[in-house]
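Reviewers asked in the last cycle whether our approach scales beyond single polypeptides. To address this, we selected a multi-component target totalling 897 residues and predicted its structure end to end. The input consisted of the following lines:
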Amino acid sequence: MRAETREHLFDVAVIGAGVVGCAVARDIGRRGMSCVLVDRADDVGDATSKANTAILHTGFDAEPGTLESRLVARGHQLLSDYAGEAGVALERIGALVLAWDDDQRAALPGLREKALSNGYGAVAVLDAHEAYRREPFLGPGCLGALAIPDESIIDPWSTTIALATDAVRSGVDLRLETEVVGVTTVAGVHRLETTTGSLAARWVCNVAGLGADRLDNIFGHAEFHVTARRGQLVVFDKMARQLVSSILLPVPTQRSKGVLVAPTVYGNVLLGPTAEDLDDRTDTASTADGVEQLRAAGSRVLPRLLDEEVTSVFAGLRAATEHRDFQIRAYPEERYLCVGGIRSTGLTASMAIAEHVVELLGSAGEDVVRLDDASGATRFPPLGECQVRPYRDAALIATDPEYGRIVCHCELVSAGELRDAFESPVPPRSTGGIRRRTRAMNGRCQGFYCAATVVSALAAARGIDPRHLLGLDGGQS
Amino acid sequence: MTTGRVQSEACAREVADVVVIGSGPAGLAAATAIRRSHPGRVLVVERQARAGGIPAQCDHRGFGLRDLHRSYSGPDYSRALAGQALEAGVEIITETTAFIESDGALAITGPAGLRHVEAAHVLLATGARERPRTARLVPGTRPAGVFTTGQLQQFVRRSLPVGSRALVVGAEHVSFSAVLTLREAGVAVRAMVTDLEEAQSLPVANAVLRHLYRVPLMTRTAVVSLEGRRRLQGVTLEDCVTGARLSVEVDTIVFSGGWVPEYGLARSAGVVLDPGSGGPAVDALGRTSRIGWFAAGNLVHPVETADSTAVQAARVGAGMAASLTRTRGPLAPAVPVRVAAPLAWVWPNLVRPGLTSGGDVTLLRTAEFGAQRSVRFSQDGRELGTYRIRHLTPNRSLRVGAAWRNGVSAEGGLVTASLH
Ligand SMILES: Cc1cc2nc3c(=O)[nH]c(=O)nc-3n(C[C@H](O)[C@H](O)[C@H](O)COP(=O)(O)OP(=O)(O)OC[C@H]3O[C@@H](n4cnc5c(N)ncnc54)[C@H](O)[C@@H]3O)c2cc1C
Ligand SMILES: Cc1cc2nc3c(=O)[nH]c(=O)nc-3n(C[C@H](O)[C@H](O)[C@H](O)COP(=O)(O)OP(=O)(O)OC[C@H]3O[C@@H](n4cnc5c(N)ncnc54)[C@H](O)[C@@H]3O)c2cc1C
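The resulting structure, written as structure tokens, was:
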């Protein structure tokens, strides 16, 4: 318990350190307001933000006129710039929406019109010949495509960690393993009851993802209900990367964006996601049916993909609601902001949502002008294949041989990178945290060679019993 | 994708007559054989801290009978092979990883720096790894407590905790090694499960499992789901015949065997793979599709025991040494050998007609059990040779003679190996 925190009154408490919460806290921190960022998990971005398809959308297919359409387009620009500054891997590889029957082909011009009404004009309809020229490994029967040259792939983990690190560097107090369980508001001060003690703040910003509606209820509102929409994904071995050069999308249906095939910045190929509405908001298990459904879809788009080894299967939960737009509302008299229903584009929109939140704070009379940009973005370690990774950087290894001491052989991660992660402002606390910061153990052998070394190093760095890291200390939560 | 070479000017070079990638039994035995008959620089590159490959991690006995003619523990066997190599004049550099630059060139990196490699011959001996849970597409949650045998052994060597009740998936040689390691770590083995109809190791291993350790063997059983959030809590099994399901409470599961050749380097180097083994396609001298590049060991026959791997690889090494002194012309065209189900792969799987050397063994694998069968090699319907086999066991070495290779015609089509 932190007794001293009772005394401190923060300007803003941000609840939820997903990609959106981290972007919001960073933006608030840079404007000179005092801010605390809390999350119940032991890492930032440990819920929906760690399990997505990692695409930086242009918003070409958003619902025109919605807040989501505007924030996705703006977010694409903001995050592209930020990724460049922070050294977060981003590849502008473009996307093709593929038509496999006459109805789908007939839908392409409509999609182009939609893109135009979303303010995105660079789309082009391609004939089948051009589609196969760009993607020679497509399965038979593709009738044409819509090209969206600015759809990009990004490192989703580093994005969240970079935003969190910049938040911490601008003075934001990050508190992990801290769950908000209740609130009392007296004389304009919110007192948050958490699992690690209580916190006082003038403003509360609810960015709790799958838990946003429940928190909203605690604040006396009931504007939306969250349904977890599970998306299972299959990650293929790096050897599959040569089979595909852009993001391959299906023609979207009313229900979902459908199953896509996309390279990742780490050099793998993703196949997914499914879209399954669940009652359990914690059920991130994969299922035999889900994987089968994905393989069936993948075998049509890129038959040779299925001959490659699978590196990993995982699932993420979208925070879907009954509405077809983001649920962002400010209640200035209550000094409460709700940022909910950030469904399937939140990675892209994150920085624009933050900008929007700051505007809402400004209209509520808060002083949000000062931009503390003296330090700029932190440079992040190069994790993408489009960057020069430390193992192949002769000059870097010459200055510090630890960057040549490879620990994870599949992903070629060095001891120097592990050390840097341990010493960073937002260090890993779990094996998942190491995977997301360094790629160690994320490769094709899934730890055959390196798991023991990495677990020992993490336990030593944190000064804890490895049983805790391996889930052998009793708790299951 | 990847950018071109980095700072080539600043980058050092490593020049050798032969570079061997991987210091497992294959790499070490081949390097020794090469150096014994060739005076040039033979360099073995190993990414791990110690030379020796997988045996260096295997604390039990059972290594070395066929090549060193006595039974060693894994680490002692590794030391013996590395000692032989050093004595022959081979250089071994550890903590150094080989990779392929985007232009196809071979490079190595390690604490001593990034270097580009120039060598007349390259031998790929990168071994095989076990197929992990993810690649087997076993659905469910992703808790801690899910291992391969190799990973389990590293945990035990480092005194990391591995749980209290375990299930072993697979019933081949290495699966029994997993049981030994678990028992040594004080973990109760609840069962060994295999989707095949029998275990595939030696009868004595079965007897020990059943009568001494009292571990039930569940055949025709598949793992259909894992449960538990932070730590594995349970596993759902399915009877492959009746479809009946059963839940087992365990906090540890070991996915053993299911070998995948460590083909990343080979493929990035543009070496053609054999569709059966998944490793580089090779002829009897270990020659791949890339001139000057050879492959040996479990990379090309996943997997054989360490000692027979070493014996085969030494032959490849001897051939390499011979070709170093010969003036090199283009390779004779190769005729691929394909297997018909239930055969899984054959080694060698390229035949270069006219080649007389290269050993007298053909290795095969089957996916099904059987008895009193024969393997027939044929080309365009013409029989090249037929060999009787008493017992067929999946995941077990099957060896027949090599005389069939003499009849292969360079002008003919594929050679087929099939069971009758
Ligand atoms: C399968 C899938 C594919 C996707 N693909 C893309 C894509 O390609 N591009 C894209 O832009 N977007 C994509 N998305 C969407 C994107 O991942 C999300 O919109 C984004 O991650 C949402 O971020 P968030 O911060 O709102 O939520 P989260 O990441 O879920 O963060 C919410 C946080 O709040 C915490 N929390 C909740 N309740 C409490 C409490 N009471 N106390 C303390 N902490 C609490 C949680 O622990 C969590 O960390 C995809 C999503 C899925 C599931
Ligand atoms: C748990 C277990 C128990 C076993 N028990 C026995 C037994 O009792 N008796 C027996 O005879 N056999 C046993 N075996 C089998 C035996 O280990 C193998 O047959 C043998 O190791 C194969 O030798 P190899 O040289 O082909 O490959 P490996 O031993 O796998 O060696 C390959 C080497 O290449 C290195 N390498 C790979 N890629 C690179 C790269 N890019 N750069 C640098 N280095 C690289 C690897 O680090 C590794 O050291 C066991 C195997 C296992 C997993």
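Residues 1-6 of chain A have pLDDT under 50 and may be disordered. We regard this as preliminary and will revisit it once experimental data from Aim 1 are available.
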